[in-house]
């Protein structure tokens, strides 16, 4: 079954695109928490388009991280309007209880964006399995145990052919690639901001 509405693309179905996630340049690129989580949830749908149950661990890991951040946001909405504020306030509130929500979900986002960026523009004739395997080695692999690595390796090998994947995103290949490029650029910009913030002393404990 197609992952897009008649005449449209996959991105027409998304609850929110990263393009529409506010990032306030006047406040050190503060990223709105609610909208970011909605866009991240929409991203997990791409693993369904990839079509293999082997990607279930990737989707599950990302979904769990989204839930952790949303749970913390719901506990203290005033202190969690932006992702940066959520981290700062949680550091101050829970530093001794060691209950800091896991924002390492950015690794999963980084992994996905790198794989799709490589496949879309850097290696436009490369099969998805190669692109995802390369991205895995650059992002998640170093954090995984010898038990987890084979599971993710199986997921990379189970990627569909690139022509089938892009076909599931829409009938108009030119439009699909244009919208995917725009979506990826917005995701990359926000992941870059978050990674730079998480590397600062104020985001560590």
Automatic annotation (TrEMBL):
InterPro entries associated with the record: GLTP_sf, Glycolipid_transfer_prot_dom
One cellular component (GO) term of this entry: cytosol
Gene3D superfamilies to which the protein is assigned, alphabetical: Glycolipid transfer protein
Protein keywords: Transport
Highest taxon, organism lineage: Eukaryota
Pfam annotation, one family: GLTP
Record-annotated Glycolipid transfer protein domain positions: 31-171
Gene Ontology terms, MF aspect: ceramide 1-phosphate binding; ceramide 1-phosphate transfer activity
Protein name from the UniProt record: Glycolipid transfer protein domain-containing protein
């Amino acid at each position: 079954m197609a992952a897009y509405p008649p005449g449209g693309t996959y991105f027409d179905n998304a609850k929110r695109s990263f393009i529409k996630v506010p990032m306030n340049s006047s406040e050190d690129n503060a990223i709105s928490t609610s909208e970011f989580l909605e866009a991240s949830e929409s991203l997990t749908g791409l693993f369904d388009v990839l079509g293999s149950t082997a990607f279930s661990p990737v989707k599950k890991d990302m979904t769990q991280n989204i839930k952790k951040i949303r749970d913390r946001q719901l506990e203290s909405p005033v202190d969690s309007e932006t992702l940066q504020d959520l981290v700062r306030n949680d550091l101050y509130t829970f530093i001794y209880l060691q209950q800091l929500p896991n924002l390492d979900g950015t690794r999963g986002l980084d992994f996905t964006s790198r794989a799709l960026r490589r496949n879309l523009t850097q290696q436009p004739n490369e099969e998805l399995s190669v692109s995802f395997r390369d991205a895995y080695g650059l992002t998640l692999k170093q954090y995984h145990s010898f038990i987890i690595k084979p599971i993710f390796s199986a997921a990379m090998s189970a990627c569909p052919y690139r022509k089938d994947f892009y076909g599931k995103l829409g009938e108009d290949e030119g439009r699909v690639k244009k919208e995917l490029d725009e979506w990826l650029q917005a995701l990359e910009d926000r992941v870059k901001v978050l990674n730079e913030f998480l590397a600062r002393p104020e985001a560590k404990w």
